[in-house]
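Morning F.,

Quick status update on the modeling queue. The single chain you submitted on Monday has been processed. Sequence for confirmation:
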Amino acid sequence: MSQKPDEQQLKAGQRTALILAGTGALWILATWAGSHFGWSNRTRALFDLAALAGFGFALWQTFQLWRTRQNDKGES
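Structure tokens below.
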């Protein structure tokens, strides 16, 4: 089963939105847990770096989606 390019772009956009929302929610939860349980700054920084990686990955996915849409416009 081959999907149309529009459906693939839709799924890629939804996946990117879920990555952004999930990363944000987990980062907020980790920040709350760190202050509530008194985690060390080193442990909190680990979660901050993980969130930074998640946001960076979502940014990369958004850029790839944008490039794909730009290429599709040029072919029409």
